Amino acid sequence: IRNRMEESNMTQNHLPSSNGESKERMGEIKQDLLTIETDPSLTKSSVNLDKATERPSDNGKEAKDIESYKFWKTQPVPQFNEDGGKTGGPIKVINLDEVPKGPYPLLDGFEWGTIDPEDEKEVGELHELLSNHYVEDDDSTFRLNYSPVFLRWALTAPGWQKQWHIGVRASASQKLVAFISGLPANINVHTQPIKVIEINFLCIHKRLRSKRLAPLLIREITRRCYLQDIYQAIYTAAAVLPTPVASYRYYHRALDWLKLYKSGFSGLPGDSTKARQIAKYYLPSTTQTPGLRLMQADDLDAVHELLERYLQRFDISPKFSIDELRHLLFFGAGQAKEASSKRVVWAYVVEDLETQKITDFVSFYSIESTVLSHSQNDVIRTAYLYYYASTDSPPNLQPRIQGLINDALILAKKARFDVFNALHLQDNDLFLEKLRFGPGDGRLHYYLFNYQVAPTVNKDASDYLDSQRPGGMGVVML
Fold first, then answer.
1. CA atoms within 13 Å, Cβ hemisphere of 306
2. pTM of the model
3. In terms of residue numbers, what domain contains 52?
Protein backbone atom coordinates (compact mmCIF):
# COMPACT_ATOMS: atom_id res chain seq x y z
CA ILE A 1 0.00 0.00 0.00
CA ARG A 2 3.67 2.98 -4.33
CA ASN A 3 2.04 2.29 -1.59
CA ARG A 4 5.22 1.29 0.04
CA MET A 5 4.96 -0.31 3.43
CA GLU A 6 8.22 -0.25 5.30
CA GLU A 7 9.38 -3.52 6.81
CA SER A 8 10.41 -1.89 10.06
CA ASN A 9 6.96 -0.36 10.39
CA MET A 10 4.90 -3.43 9.61
CA THR A 11 6.55 -6.62 10.77
CA GLN A 12 8.01 -5.99 14.19
CA ASN A 13 5.38 -3.90 15.96
CA HIS A 14 2.15 -4.58 17.78
CA LEU A 15 -0.52 -2.28 19.08
CA PRO A 16 -0.02 -0.28 22.27
CA SER A 17 -2.44 -0.85 25.07
CA SER A 18 -5.23 1.66 25.55
CA ASN A 19 -3.90 2.33 29.05
CA GLY A 20 -0.78 4.02 27.68
CA GLU A 21 2.90 3.31 28.24
CA SER A 22 5.03 3.29 31.36
CA LYS A 23 6.48 6.55 32.67
CA GLU A 24 9.92 5.43 31.53
CA ARG A 25 8.69 4.77 27.99
CA MET A 26 6.80 8.06 27.90
CA GLY A 27 10.04 9.78 28.87
CA GLU A 28 11.73 8.17 25.87
CA ILE A 29 8.93 9.29 23.55
CA LYS A 30 8.98 12.88 24.80
CA GLN A 31 12.77 12.99 24.39
CA ASP A 32 12.42 11.73 20.82
CA LEU A 33 9.79 14.39 20.09
CA LEU A 34 12.13 17.06 21.46
CA THR A 35 14.94 15.72 19.29
CA ILE A 36 12.73 15.71 16.19
CA GLU A 37 11.71 19.30 16.78
CA THR A 38 15.21 20.69 17.47
CA ASP A 39 17.80 18.61 15.58
CA PRO A 40 18.31 19.90 11.99
CA SER A 41 20.45 16.89 11.08
CA LEU A 42 17.33 14.74 11.02
CA THR A 43 16.47 16.18 7.62
CA LYS A 44 19.55 14.58 6.07
CA SER A 45 18.29 11.08 5.45
CA SER A 46 18.49 9.39 2.08
CA VAL A 47 16.99 6.77 -0.20
CA ASN A 48 17.87 3.49 -1.82
CA LEU A 49 15.51 1.93 -4.32
CA ASP A 50 17.98 -0.43 -5.92
CA LYS A 51 20.04 2.65 -6.56
CA ALA A 52 17.18 4.95 -5.74
CA THR A 53 14.40 4.03 -8.16
CA GLU A 54 12.71 0.92 -6.76
CA ARG A 55 11.13 0.15 -3.47
CA PRO A 56 13.55 -0.99 -0.79
CA SER A 57 14.70 -4.58 -0.75
CA ASP A 58 14.54 -6.64 2.42
CA ASN A 59 18.32 -7.11 2.59
CA GLY A 60 17.93 -10.87 2.78
CA LYS A 61 15.30 -10.78 5.53
CA GLU A 62 12.39 -12.14 3.52
CA ALA A 63 12.22 -15.52 5.25
CA LYS A 64 10.93 -14.47 8.67
CA ASP A 65 9.41 -16.71 11.30
CA ILE A 66 5.66 -16.32 11.53
CA GLU A 67 5.96 -15.52 15.25
CA SER A 68 7.50 -12.14 14.35
CA TYR A 69 4.31 -11.04 12.62
CA LYS A 70 2.38 -10.31 15.79
CA PHE A 71 0.29 -7.53 14.33
CA TRP A 72 -0.63 -9.27 11.07
CA LYS A 73 -1.69 -12.41 12.91
CA THR A 74 -4.50 -10.32 14.43
CA GLN A 75 -5.72 -9.06 11.05
CA PRO A 76 -8.08 -10.61 8.46
CA VAL A 77 -5.33 -11.56 6.01
CA PRO A 78 -4.33 -15.02 4.72
CA GLN A 79 -1.70 -16.55 7.00
CA PHE A 80 1.39 -18.38 5.76
CA ASN A 81 0.11 -21.79 6.85
CA GLU A 82 -3.14 -21.47 4.89
CA ASP A 83 -3.63 -22.94 1.42
CA GLY A 84 -5.50 -19.94 0.00
CA GLY A 85 -8.78 -21.78 -0.41
CA LYS A 86 -10.40 -23.09 -3.52
CA THR A 87 -12.53 -20.00 -4.00
CA GLY A 88 -12.04 -16.34 -3.27
CA GLY A 89 -14.06 -14.27 -0.86
CA PRO A 90 -14.00 -12.13 2.29
CA ILE A 91 -12.12 -13.59 5.24
CA LYS A 92 -14.18 -11.83 7.90
CA VAL A 93 -17.69 -10.39 7.88
CA ILE A 94 -17.49 -7.00 9.57
CA ASN A 95 -20.09 -6.17 12.21
CA LEU A 96 -20.38 -2.37 12.16
CA ASP A 97 -21.75 -2.38 15.69
CA GLU A 98 -18.31 -3.54 16.82
CA VAL A 99 -16.40 -0.86 14.88
CA PRO A 100 -15.37 2.11 17.08
CA LYS A 101 -17.08 5.33 16.02
CA GLY A 102 -14.17 7.48 17.20
CA PRO A 103 -10.42 7.30 16.47
CA TYR A 104 -8.09 4.97 18.32
CA PRO A 105 -6.16 6.61 21.17
CA LEU A 106 -2.62 7.76 20.47
CA LEU A 107 0.31 7.99 22.86
CA ASP A 108 0.74 11.19 24.85
CA GLY A 109 2.49 13.81 22.75
CA PHE A 110 0.79 12.82 19.49
CA GLU A 111 -2.50 13.69 17.84
CA TRP A 112 -4.41 12.65 14.74
CA GLY A 113 -4.68 14.93 11.73
CA THR A 114 -5.46 14.81 8.03
CA ILE A 115 -3.63 16.01 4.95
CA ASP A 116 -5.50 17.94 2.27
CA PRO A 117 -3.65 17.24 -1.03
CA GLU A 118 -5.19 20.40 -2.50
CA ASP A 119 -3.63 22.54 0.24
CA GLU A 120 -0.16 23.72 -0.82
CA LYS A 121 1.19 24.00 2.74
CA GLU A 122 -0.01 20.54 3.80
CA VAL A 123 1.30 18.92 0.62
CA GLY A 124 4.63 20.57 1.37
CA GLU A 125 4.66 19.00 4.82
CA LEU A 126 3.93 15.57 3.34
CA HIS A 127 6.61 16.08 0.70
CA GLU A 128 9.15 16.83 3.45
CA LEU A 129 8.17 13.78 5.51
CA LEU A 130 8.34 11.39 2.56
CA SER A 131 11.57 12.87 1.21
CA ASN A 132 13.37 12.37 4.50
CA HIS A 133 11.78 9.25 5.95
CA TYR A 134 9.94 7.14 3.35
CA VAL A 135 12.65 5.10 1.64
CA GLU A 136 16.20 5.05 2.89
CA ASP A 137 19.63 4.40 1.43
CA ASP A 138 22.36 2.95 3.66
CA ASP A 139 25.09 4.71 1.67
CA SER A 140 23.41 8.14 1.87
CA THR A 141 23.67 8.43 -1.90
CA PHE A 142 20.14 8.91 -3.23
CA ARG A 143 16.82 10.26 -2.01
CA LEU A 144 13.44 9.77 -3.68
CA ASN A 145 11.72 13.05 -4.39
CA TYR A 146 7.94 12.83 -4.47
CA SER A 147 7.16 16.26 -5.85
CA PRO A 148 4.09 18.17 -4.62
CA VAL A 149 2.50 17.85 -8.06
CA PHE A 150 3.06 14.07 -7.99
CA LEU A 151 1.45 13.84 -4.55
CA ARG A 152 -1.57 15.83 -5.70
CA TRP A 153 -1.93 13.48 -8.65
CA ALA A 154 -1.53 10.36 -6.52
CA LEU A 155 -3.90 11.46 -3.75
CA THR A 156 -6.78 13.18 -5.57
CA ALA A 157 -8.22 10.49 -7.84
CA PRO A 158 -12.04 10.60 -8.13
CA GLY A 159 -13.72 9.61 -4.89
CA TRP A 160 -10.84 10.71 -2.64
CA GLN A 161 -11.68 11.87 0.86
CA LYS A 162 -9.48 13.92 3.15
CA GLN A 163 -10.38 11.65 6.08
CA TRP A 164 -8.48 8.81 4.35
CA HIS A 165 -5.23 10.80 4.15
CA ILE A 166 -4.31 10.36 7.79
CA GLY A 167 -1.43 12.04 9.57
CA VAL A 168 0.03 11.94 13.05
CA ARG A 169 1.46 15.17 14.44
CA ALA A 170 3.63 15.99 17.42
CA SER A 171 1.23 17.87 19.67
CA ALA A 172 3.69 20.54 20.82
CA SER A 173 5.16 21.53 17.45
CA GLN A 174 2.42 20.25 15.10
CA LYS A 175 5.18 18.64 13.04
CA LEU A 176 3.93 15.85 10.75
CA VAL A 177 5.66 12.65 11.91
CA ALA A 178 3.61 9.85 10.31
CA PHE A 179 1.22 9.34 7.41
CA ILE A 180 -0.91 6.80 5.57
CA SER A 181 -3.19 7.33 2.57
CA GLY A 182 -6.18 5.55 1.10
CA LEU A 183 -8.06 5.92 -2.17
CA PRO A 184 -11.25 4.10 -3.15
CA ALA A 185 -10.97 1.83 -6.17
CA ASN A 186 -12.72 -0.99 -7.96
CA ILE A 187 -10.86 -4.13 -8.93
CA ASN A 188 -11.72 -7.50 -10.42
CA VAL A 189 -10.38 -10.62 -8.70
CA HIS A 190 -10.96 -13.62 -10.96
CA THR A 191 -13.82 -11.66 -12.60
CA GLN A 192 -15.36 -10.93 -9.16
CA PRO A 193 -15.83 -7.14 -8.75
CA ILE A 194 -14.63 -5.79 -5.38
CA LYS A 195 -14.71 -2.32 -3.87
CA VAL A 196 -11.35 -1.71 -2.17
CA ILE A 197 -9.24 0.99 -0.66
CA GLU A 198 -5.76 1.41 -2.17
CA ILE A 199 -3.38 1.96 0.73
CA ASN A 200 -0.22 3.92 0.02
CA PHE A 201 2.57 6.06 1.46
CA LEU A 202 2.75 4.52 4.93
CA CYS A 203 5.60 6.51 6.45
CA ILE A 204 6.88 6.91 10.01
CA HIS A 205 9.55 9.37 11.13
CA LYS A 206 12.77 7.41 11.64
CA ARG A 207 13.01 8.37 15.30
CA LEU A 208 9.54 6.99 16.00
CA ARG A 209 9.66 3.58 14.35
CA SER A 210 9.82 1.77 17.67
CA LYS A 211 6.73 3.57 18.96
CA ARG A 212 4.16 1.27 17.31
CA LEU A 213 2.57 4.00 15.22
CA ALA A 214 2.32 1.94 12.02
CA PRO A 215 -0.19 -0.61 13.37
CA LEU A 216 -2.24 2.26 14.78
CA LEU A 217 -2.28 4.00 11.40
CA ILE A 218 -3.38 0.77 9.72
CA ARG A 219 -6.10 0.13 12.29
CA GLU A 220 -7.31 3.72 12.08
CA ILE A 221 -7.62 3.80 8.29
CA THR A 222 -9.28 0.37 8.45
CA ARG A 223 -11.80 1.71 10.97
CA ARG A 224 -12.61 4.72 8.79
CA CYS A 225 -13.05 2.55 5.71
CA TYR A 226 -15.34 0.12 7.53
CA LEU A 227 -17.58 3.04 8.48
CA GLN A 228 -17.80 3.91 4.76
CA ASP A 229 -18.74 0.32 3.83
CA ILE A 230 -15.36 -0.57 2.35
CA TYR A 231 -14.15 -3.86 3.82
CA GLN A 232 -11.25 -4.86 1.54
CA ALA A 233 -7.94 -3.22 0.62
CA ILE A 234 -5.06 -3.68 -1.81
CA TYR A 235 -1.50 -2.69 -0.93
CA THR A 236 2.12 -3.46 -1.74
CA ALA A 237 5.30 -3.84 0.30
CA ALA A 238 8.94 -4.69 -0.20
CA ALA A 239 8.72 -6.87 2.91
CA VAL A 240 7.21 -10.35 2.88
CA LEU A 241 4.13 -10.18 5.08
CA PRO A 242 1.22 -12.61 5.48
CA THR A 243 0.54 -13.35 2.65
CA PRO A 244 1.44 -12.09 -0.87
CA VAL A 245 -1.01 -12.76 -3.67
CA ALA A 246 1.73 -11.95 -6.20
CA SER A 247 5.40 -10.95 -6.13
CA TYR A 248 7.42 -9.26 -8.83
CA ARG A 249 10.98 -8.12 -9.44
CA TYR A 250 11.92 -4.63 -10.58
CA TYR A 251 13.69 -4.20 -13.91
CA HIS A 252 15.65 -1.15 -15.09
CA ARG A 253 16.51 0.10 -18.56
CA ALA A 254 19.19 2.78 -18.87
CA LEU A 255 18.32 5.71 -21.13
CA ASP A 256 21.33 7.92 -20.35
CA TRP A 257 23.89 5.38 -19.19
CA LEU A 258 26.77 7.86 -18.94
CA LYS A 259 24.83 10.12 -16.57
CA LEU A 260 23.80 7.12 -14.47
CA TYR A 261 27.43 6.03 -14.29
CA LYS A 262 28.71 9.48 -13.31
CA SER A 263 26.03 9.74 -10.65
CA GLY A 264 26.95 6.42 -9.10
CA PHE A 265 23.66 4.83 -10.12
CA SER A 266 25.18 2.34 -12.59
CA GLY A 267 28.49 0.56 -12.40
CA LEU A 268 30.87 -0.33 -15.21
CA PRO A 269 31.02 -4.11 -15.77
CA GLY A 270 34.53 -5.49 -15.59
CA ASP A 271 34.33 -6.95 -19.09
CA SER A 272 33.00 -3.77 -20.72
CA THR A 273 33.94 -0.17 -21.45
CA LYS A 274 32.09 3.12 -21.27
CA ALA A 275 31.79 3.19 -25.05
CA ARG A 276 30.35 -0.33 -25.13
CA GLN A 277 27.80 0.49 -22.44
CA ILE A 278 26.68 3.62 -24.27
CA ALA A 279 26.33 1.61 -27.47
CA LYS A 280 24.46 -1.16 -25.63
CA TYR A 281 21.73 1.23 -24.53
CA TYR A 282 21.55 3.24 -27.73
CA LEU A 283 18.06 4.25 -28.87
CA PRO A 284 17.09 5.81 -32.20
CA SER A 285 15.84 9.39 -32.15
CA THR A 286 12.47 8.64 -33.78
CA THR A 287 9.71 6.17 -32.95
CA GLN A 288 8.94 3.27 -35.26
CA THR A 289 5.21 2.55 -34.82
CA PRO A 290 3.07 4.18 -37.55
CA GLY A 291 0.27 6.31 -36.11
CA LEU A 292 1.85 6.76 -32.67
CA ARG A 293 1.02 10.15 -31.15
CA LEU A 294 0.37 11.93 -27.87
CA MET A 295 -3.00 11.00 -26.39
CA GLN A 296 -5.69 13.68 -26.64
CA ALA A 297 -8.87 14.20 -24.61
CA ASP A 298 -10.94 12.97 -27.57
CA ASP A 299 -9.20 9.58 -27.30
CA LEU A 300 -10.42 8.92 -23.77
CA ASP A 301 -13.47 6.80 -24.61
CA ALA A 302 -11.53 4.65 -27.06
CA VAL A 303 -8.63 4.15 -24.64
CA HIS A 304 -11.04 3.31 -21.81
CA GLU A 305 -12.68 0.60 -23.92
CA LEU A 306 -9.33 -0.72 -25.15
CA LEU A 307 -7.78 -0.86 -21.68
CA GLU A 308 -10.85 -2.42 -20.08
CA ARG A 309 -10.81 -5.21 -22.63
CA TYR A 310 -7.06 -5.75 -22.37
CA LEU A 311 -7.00 -5.90 -18.57
CA GLN A 312 -9.36 -8.87 -18.65
CA ARG A 313 -6.26 -10.95 -19.42
CA PHE A 314 -5.15 -10.75 -15.79
CA ASP A 315 -6.35 -12.46 -12.63
CA ILE A 316 -6.44 -9.22 -10.64
CA SER A 317 -7.11 -6.02 -12.56
CA PRO A 318 -8.44 -2.50 -12.02
CA LYS A 319 -11.88 -1.40 -13.15
CA PHE A 320 -11.55 2.25 -14.15
CA SER A 321 -14.31 4.74 -14.72
CA ILE A 322 -13.92 7.37 -17.43
CA ASP A 323 -13.33 10.03 -14.77
CA GLU A 324 -10.63 7.96 -13.08
CA LEU A 325 -8.83 7.38 -16.36
CA ARG A 326 -9.07 11.08 -17.21
CA HIS A 327 -7.42 11.95 -13.91
CA LEU A 328 -4.73 9.27 -14.16
CA LEU A 329 -3.71 10.04 -17.74
CA PHE A 330 -4.28 13.77 -18.12
CA PHE A 331 -3.41 15.26 -14.73
CA GLY A 332 -1.23 18.29 -15.40
CA ALA A 333 -0.96 17.46 -19.10
CA GLY A 334 -2.32 20.83 -20.13
CA GLN A 335 -0.06 22.70 -17.73
CA ALA A 336 3.36 21.41 -18.72
CA LYS A 337 5.33 20.62 -21.85
CA GLU A 338 6.23 17.04 -22.70
CA ALA A 339 9.74 17.34 -21.28
CA SER A 340 8.77 19.48 -18.29
CA SER A 341 9.74 18.34 -14.80
CA LYS A 342 6.31 19.55 -13.64
CA ARG A 343 4.51 16.97 -15.73
CA VAL A 344 3.55 13.73 -13.95
CA VAL A 345 2.22 11.30 -16.57
CA TRP A 346 2.76 10.76 -20.30
CA ALA A 347 0.21 8.86 -22.41
CA TYR A 348 0.35 7.92 -26.10
CA VAL A 349 -1.96 6.14 -28.52
CA VAL A 350 -1.58 4.43 -31.87
CA GLU A 351 -4.20 5.50 -34.41
CA ASP A 352 -4.74 3.27 -37.43
CA LEU A 353 -3.92 5.44 -40.43
CA GLU A 354 -6.71 3.92 -42.52
CA THR A 355 -9.58 3.44 -40.07
CA GLN A 356 -8.63 6.21 -37.59
CA LYS A 357 -9.36 3.75 -34.76
CA ILE A 358 -7.19 3.57 -31.64
CA THR A 359 -5.39 0.22 -31.67
CA ASP A 360 -2.76 0.63 -28.94
CA PHE A 361 -2.00 2.71 -25.89
CA VAL A 362 1.00 3.17 -23.58
CA SER A 363 1.79 5.41 -20.61
CA PHE A 364 4.47 6.10 -18.02
CA TYR A 365 4.87 8.41 -15.04
CA SER A 366 7.75 10.24 -13.41
CA ILE A 367 9.48 10.21 -10.03
CA GLU A 368 12.79 12.00 -9.51
CA SER A 369 15.64 10.93 -7.24
CA THR A 370 18.04 13.45 -5.72
CA VAL A 371 21.73 12.52 -5.93
CA LEU A 372 23.31 13.55 -2.65
CA SER A 373 26.93 12.68 -3.36
CA HIS A 374 27.44 14.15 -6.84
CA SER A 375 26.92 17.86 -7.44
CA GLN A 376 27.44 17.46 -11.20
CA ASN A 377 24.25 15.41 -11.65
CA ASP A 378 21.95 16.28 -8.79
CA VAL A 379 18.76 14.63 -10.11
CA ILE A 380 18.00 11.25 -11.68
CA ARG A 381 14.77 11.35 -13.66
CA THR A 382 13.03 7.97 -13.65
CA ALA A 383 10.13 6.93 -15.87
CA TYR A 384 7.93 4.14 -14.49
CA LEU A 385 5.91 2.04 -16.92
CA TYR A 386 2.22 2.55 -16.18
CA TYR A 387 -0.70 1.05 -18.15
CA TYR A 388 -0.65 -0.10 -21.76
CA ALA A 389 -2.94 -2.07 -24.06
CA SER A 390 -3.21 -3.43 -27.59
CA THR A 391 -5.88 -4.88 -29.84
CA ASP A 392 -3.43 -7.53 -31.04
CA SER A 393 -3.52 -11.05 -29.63
CA PRO A 394 -0.99 -13.92 -29.65
CA PRO A 395 1.09 -14.66 -31.63
CA ASN A 396 1.15 -11.04 -32.85
CA LEU A 397 0.97 -9.57 -29.36
CA GLN A 398 4.64 -9.98 -28.45
CA PRO A 399 6.16 -8.06 -31.38
CA ARG A 400 3.46 -5.42 -31.07
CA ILE A 401 3.98 -4.81 -27.35
CA GLN A 402 7.74 -4.98 -27.80
CA GLY A 403 7.62 -2.27 -30.45
CA LEU A 404 5.23 -0.16 -28.39
CA ILE A 405 7.44 -0.23 -25.29
CA ASN A 406 10.55 0.43 -27.36
CA ASP A 407 8.86 3.57 -28.65
CA ALA A 408 7.99 4.48 -25.05
CA LEU A 409 11.71 4.25 -24.24
CA ILE A 410 12.50 6.59 -27.12
CA LEU A 411 9.82 9.06 -26.02
CA ALA A 412 11.03 8.93 -22.41
CA LYS A 413 14.59 9.63 -23.52
CA LYS A 414 13.38 12.58 -25.61
CA ALA A 415 11.58 13.85 -22.50
CA ARG A 416 14.99 13.79 -20.73
CA PHE A 417 14.46 10.76 -18.52
CA ASP A 418 17.59 8.91 -17.44
CA VAL A 419 16.25 5.44 -16.63
CA PHE A 420 13.03 3.50 -17.30
CA ASN A 421 11.63 1.09 -14.69
CA ALA A 422 9.13 -1.74 -15.00
CA LEU A 423 7.94 -4.55 -12.78
CA HIS A 424 7.78 -8.18 -13.88
CA LEU A 425 3.96 -8.16 -14.11
CA GLN A 426 1.19 -7.73 -16.71
CA ASP A 427 2.62 -8.75 -20.11
CA ASN A 428 6.06 -7.33 -19.34
CA ASP A 429 7.67 -10.73 -19.96
CA LEU A 430 7.10 -10.00 -23.64
CA PHE A 431 9.75 -7.28 -23.80
CA LEU A 432 11.94 -7.00 -20.67
CA GLU A 433 14.80 -9.16 -21.92
CA LYS A 434 14.63 -8.12 -25.57
CA LEU A 435 14.70 -4.40 -24.77
CA ARG A 436 17.70 -4.69 -22.43
CA PHE A 437 15.96 -4.23 -19.11
CA GLY A 438 18.19 -5.52 -16.32
CA PRO A 439 16.92 -7.12 -13.09
CA GLY A 440 17.18 -5.00 -9.97
CA ASP A 441 17.66 -6.08 -6.37
CA GLY A 442 14.16 -5.20 -5.22
CA ARG A 443 10.90 -7.12 -5.32
CA LEU A 444 7.43 -5.80 -4.75
CA HIS A 445 4.78 -7.96 -3.10
CA TYR A 446 1.05 -7.42 -3.61
CA TYR A 447 -1.47 -8.03 -0.82
CA LEU A 448 -5.23 -8.10 -0.37
CA PHE A 449 -6.75 -7.24 3.01
CA ASN A 450 -9.76 -9.24 4.21
CA TYR A 451 -9.99 -11.25 1.01
CA GLN A 452 -9.01 -14.85 0.35
CA VAL A 453 -7.65 -15.29 -3.15
CA ALA A 454 -7.95 -18.51 -5.11
CA PRO A 455 -4.49 -19.99 -5.73
CA THR A 456 -4.37 -19.41 -9.49
CA VAL A 457 -2.84 -15.93 -9.08
CA ASN A 458 0.77 -15.87 -10.24
CA LYS A 459 3.05 -15.66 -7.19
CA ASP A 460 6.37 -16.10 -8.98
CA ALA A 461 9.12 -13.82 -7.66
CA SER A 462 12.04 -15.47 -9.44
CA ASP A 463 14.22 -14.00 -12.14
CA TYR A 464 12.72 -16.34 -14.73
CA LEU A 465 10.97 -14.58 -17.59
CA ASP A 466 8.33 -16.60 -19.40
CA SER A 467 6.74 -14.85 -22.37
CA GLN A 468 4.25 -17.69 -22.71
CA ARG A 469 2.89 -17.15 -19.18
CA PRO A 470 2.17 -13.47 -18.48
CA GLY A 471 1.84 -12.26 -14.91
CA GLY A 472 -1.47 -12.60 -13.10
CA MET A 473 -1.41 -9.06 -11.68
CA GLY A 474 -2.83 -6.23 -13.76
CA VAL A 475 -2.89 -3.51 -11.08
CA VAL A 476 -0.07 -0.94 -11.15
CA MET A 477 0.34 0.72 -7.76
CA LEU A 478 2.01 4.13 -7.60
1. 21
2. 0.85
3. 7-246
